[in-house]
Amino acid sequence: MVKRANNTKANSKKIFVLDTSVILYDHDALNNFKEHDVVIPIQVLEELDNFKNGNDNRNFEARSFIRLIDELSKKQLINEWIDLPGAESGRFRIAVTEKKTGTDAEKILGSEKTDHRILNTALFLKEERAGNKVILVSKDICLRLKAKALGLQAEDYETGKIKNAADLYSGITEIKGLNESLFSRLKNDKVIPAEGIQTDGHNQFYILRSGRKQASAFHYAPHNSLEFISRLSAMNIQPRNQEQYCALHALMNPAIKLVTLQGNAGTGKTLLALASALEQRKDFRQIFVTRPVIPLSNQDIGYLPGDIKSKIDPYMSPIWDNLKFIKEQFSKEDDMRGKIEGMVESEKITITPLAFIRGRTLAKIFFIVDEAQNLTPHEVKTIISRAGEDTKIVFTGDIYQIDTPYLDAESNGLSYLIENAKSHPLYAHITLQKGERSELANLANELL
Question: What φ, ψ does residue 375 adopt, rounded to 5°?
Fold first, then answer.
């Protein structure tokens, strides 16, 4: 076997020590450190053993990592260095040590936490491999701070992170000073060539202005055309601002198969998505509406009393509230209200936690994923990869309202998708900024 590392290069290599949070975020993490070496403390394997059962994404990541290590090791001992796949890749091993250094994390911080034993493993490696730079990698901010306080370099796991959430693609651009003849052609013909307008080359919404005249348009990149955005409605839900009209245009456009809606609470993301799905109910076999379940105090929903419906209903209540609001738009139309209720009873509309649809084939489904900011990039990829023919997938969420401890505005799956899918011809996105829930709700978003 040809060794990729030689003595002259050995000291230039870094050693990255991964904690459990990294593995639960990305089971393939150890393959993402280029030529550098990766160490997994034995305590991480023990924690992963506790996560291997269940249907949540973290359970899937734990199982996948355990299988990956087993496949890579084959007949080799894993407490010794094993080459990772790829000519330019480094090595990995499982670190088993009870040795302490002059800085003992367990003595300083307490021995009851596994994190402190992981810190000691990294501190021992730092002392043992003085010629190499040893870095702890963790999604846990507090653990990284503890490491730095003990003189150990620590950093976040950067794979899957966007550079800056503040610069995230918004999907909408304003253009001023246009020729008035363009407005006339756009309103009369509805679809015109995108000539005379400098576009970014991908699907995007535009607010066009010329003096007092204003129009909203969608640039459809595959045809290099501008589509006039008319005053659409869905299930008697009428958009209240230009952003919402743009969002509904994307949701109702059969050429667009993947949509993301990002914005504050009260901007109408979930309501518009659900209303558009119901409006197009004849075009799809089923409507799936789902969201990740983020239990309080890190307790699984199995701890809650009652049957499965009683356990999940509190988490799905915002979606049921939106469905109730849509039914109220037909207060004088018993027939339509009955149709919506019948769709729920027959499971034409299925409202359920995300974990309950893992593994299902999504063929001819209108699939809405609410609170998508609580998903990892890998979860988002897995969901989209399940799409069959004639399926449309909509992700909604607010990247600044994250309920999971190891995600943030840059590393969550919704931000990752918006940044990486923006050039695809099947994709459209818009960031909703204007709240329409109530003036009181707007006060909270603007002032508090």
Answer: -100, 155
The SS3 call for residue 94 is: strand
Angle, CA 22 vertex, CA 314 and CA 414 arms, to 5°: 50
Burial zone of 322 (CB within 10 Å; 0-12 exposed, 13-18 middle, 19+ buried)? buried
For 38, the 3-state DSSP assignment is: strand
Give the span between the Cα atoms of 384 and 391, in whole angstroms: 10
Q: What is the pLDDT of residues 230-269, one digit of tens each?
A: 999 999 999 999 999 999 999 999 999 999 999 998 899 9
The CATH number of residue 135's host domain is 3.40.50.1010
Segment 85-116, tens digit of pLDDT = 988 899 999 999 877 778 999 999 998 999 99
Do 137 and 254 belong to one domain? no
Based on the domain organization, do 179 and 318 belong to the same domain? yes
Q: Are residues 24 and 172 in the same domain?
A: no
The pTM score is 0.86
Contact 110/116 with Cβ under 8 angstroms?
A: yes
**CB count in 10 Å sphere of residue 363:** 14
Alpha-carbon distances, residue 369 vs 288, 290, 383 (angstroms): 8, 5, 9
Q: In this structure, what are the phi and psi dihedrals at residue 360, rounded to the nearest 5 degrees?
A: -80, 145
Residue type, 94: I
Per DSSP, 311 falls in state H
Neighbours of 174 (CB within 10 A): 11
**Which CATH number belongs to the domain containing residue 264 in this structure?**
3.40.50.300
Residue 229 burial (C-beta neighbours within 10 Å; 0-12, 13-18, 19+): buried
